[in-house]
Design a protein that fits this description.
41% of the residues lie in helices and 9% in strands. Strands 2-1-3 form a 3-stranded mixed beta sheet. The longest helix is centred in the C-terminal third of the chain and has 11 residues. The radius of gyration is 20 Å and the shape is globular.
Amino acid sequence: MTSSNDTTAETPPAATATCTTVYPTFSEAWEFSDLVLVTSERKFHVHKAVLSMWSPTLKVKILEIADSNELVLEEQVSCASFLQLLQTIYPPNKPISDDNCEKLVKLANQFSMFELLRRCEEFL
């Protein structure tokens, strides 16, 4: 039995836990997402404003669908590569690396994401 004057301190869980960055999966609605982006392999729950800021190509497509909350991508995109793209442009911004740079450049060109292209070039 311990008394209220017991001075033994336990280490708080935060002090012993490893810090790992958790990137969004976009697999379900979250934080005011207002668009479902449909690829041949899966659906991504995203934000019209975020995609519009990064990509003039996607902005035009979003404006064309007006009040709809679903955009079907006609372009062939790899599900894994597109997830990498989203995780790179959304906070906490997955870093550009040797593993993802080539895929990001391809998609950045495909969707006219000039700032992402610049960041990839800076990485290289």
